[in-house]
Amino acid sequence: MEPVSDPIDRTSARGLGGELVLRLTELIQDGTIRKGEKLPTESSLMESYQVSRTVVREAISQLRASGLVETQQGRGSFVLTAPSHGQFALDANEIRTVDDVWDMLDFRLGIESEAAALAAGRRTDQQLAELRRLQQRFEDCESRPSDAVEADFALHLGVANAARNRHYSALLKSVGPMMIVMPKFRLLTGGDANREDNVRLAALEHDAIVSAIARQEPETARAAIRLHLANSRARMMG
């Protein structure tokens, strides 16, 4: 299904990636691209909306993190579900300044610390195994920090899933990987050594979170994720 190629607003505060996410979400929502159908190719989207390949990949990454599409190696991206018109959503594309980042971290402190505490008390063995897998996925990003954004988000979403309360998962999915603000402002800035150090430090903090969940210690898990977010803030301040 080829998209309707209305020009993208290049002056929007959302940015080109955010505008493309909005356009594709609308096509999925109104049934132009239905569940199970393949998204247009990167080249087609680039031509239709006059954007770069980087912008297209950023948009698809956000759709994937929001649970709207899945990408199959060598085949492309396919629609999983249509978003509800009335669903709660936070606009990740409005996280553009340092003040926006501080506000998001404050929000996350309350939400994610409670999710971690619940996960420690409710997680299943299968969910713990998944957290271990996601933890290893992030650690593997030390040598390739550019992959850390999605890996970091996946682990935080895994903790929310282990809380076994769909509202925590829905909140994180509404923002996608841009909720992991450290990569945007610190993880992917500076030299290679600095990026690798940030991944290494975050991996140690992730280990403390997952270990507390494994031991089923809610207060320890809550404290571990609060420390992780506080340290993320410190790293952003340099």
TrEMBL record:
<feature type="domain" description="HTH gntR-type">
    <location>
        <begin position="14"/>
        <end position="82"/>
    </location>
</feature>
<protein>
    <submittedName>
        <fullName>FadR family transcriptional regulator</fullName>
    </submittedName>
</protein>
<dbReference type="InterPro" id="IPR036388">
    <property type="entry name" value="WH-like_DNA-bd_sf"/>
</dbReference>
<dbReference type="Pfam" id="PF07729">
    <property type="entry name" value="FCD"/>
</dbReference>
<dbReference type="InterPro" id="IPR000524">
    <property type="entry name" value="Tscrpt_reg_HTH_GntR"/>
</dbReference>
<keyword id="KW-0238">DNA-binding</keyword>
<dbReference type="InterPro" id="IPR036390">
    <property type="entry name" value="WH_DNA-bd_sf"/>
</dbReference>
<dbReference type="GO" id="GO:0003677">
    <property type="term" value="F:DNA binding"/>
</dbReference>
<keyword id="KW-0804">Transcription</keyword>
<dbReference type="GO" id="GO:0003700">
    <property type="term" value="F:DNA-binding transcription factor activity"/>
</dbReference>
<dbReference type="Pfam" id="PF00392">
    <property type="entry name" value="GntR"/>
</dbReference>
<dbReference type="InterPro" id="IPR008920">
    <property type="entry name" value="TF_FadR/GntR_C"/>
</dbReference>
<keyword id="KW-0805">Transcription regulation</keyword>
<dbReference type="InterPro" id="IPR011711">
    <property type="entry name" value="GntR_C"/>
</dbReference>
